[in-house]
Amino acid sequence: MVKYSCFKSSCLLSLIILLFLSSCGSYTNTALFKSTNDIDPESVKDVYVVNDQGQGDIYYKIKIGDVISVRNLQNMEFGVIGSAESVSASTTGDNVPTFPVDINGTVNLPTIGKVLLAGLTRRDATIKLQELYEAKSLKNPIIELTIINVKVTMYGEFSTNGIFLLERDNTRLEEMIAKAGGFTKNADPRSIRIIRGDRKNPETIHVNLTSIKSLANDKLILQNNDIIYVEPTKNVMAAEKLQSYNNIIQPLLVVVNLAVLIFTLTR
User: Fold this and answer.
1) Which residue, of 112, 136, 159, 182, is most buried by count of CB atoms within 10 Å of its CB?
2) Nearest CA among 231, 162, 214, 221 for reference residue 196
3) What's the pTM value of the predicted model, to 2 decimals?
4) Helix, strand, or coil (residue 188)
5) Is 7 helix (H, G, I), strand (E, B) or coil?
6) CA distance linking residue 192 with residue 232, whole number of Å
7) How far is CA 90 from CA 80, 100, 162, 192, in A?
8) Beta partners for 72?
9) Over the stretch 12-67, which tens digit does the pLDDT of each residue have?
10) Burial of 227 (0-12, 13-18, 19+ CB in 10 A)
């Protein structure tokens, strides 16, 4: 009787331990960035905005703390890049020099020195630099200016996840999706979300990209620090949830079968 009681206690302890370990298992709900204001993606006809905060700046203006890269596409080795002057510069992965916008809003550039760029759009800053370099005897310069910290982050069912530079103004959602390689086969193009603005009180833009009407909406013009997320289809999420349950149930069944076998052999 004592032996049987010990056996039952051991089996019960084993089951408790397994249940604990299973509950600590890795089940990740694929749907991210949920909020109390979320809506059913199937109800979005084209674009639906939660906590609308207006259009914002379509044309990004250079700010203190930004980092820019500048080069002359006409002659890579002269002026913008090939100067012996000592300037505060680092390089990108493509060996393109980068320059910080200091607390005064100026950028210290080769050949022309410090230039006030804060408050200018990319286009206006580019024109200003072209004129300054041309005044320094640079013949017909074609200046390329990139703000390398202006970016969006892409999560979810895109072929490539990560951080992508907004290399020009008026970049739209569909262009950035193409840059990320498009959707995976599990993506639901009806359930795209753009999270924008203050992270404590963000604007959330729900996009149904199966509707051609969505392409005309100005809310799809991307802004600095946008988070873009696309969910998997409901079928995929349901399959993942079922698999997570199977991962819990199957070990339990093994233990129960083992307990029955031991009980049968020790009778």
Assistant:
1) 112
2) 221
3) 0.69
4) strand
5) helix
6) 10
7) 13, 9, 23, 36
8) 143
9) 445 555 554 554 444 444 566 666 666 766 788 899 999 898 877 778 999 999 99
10) middle
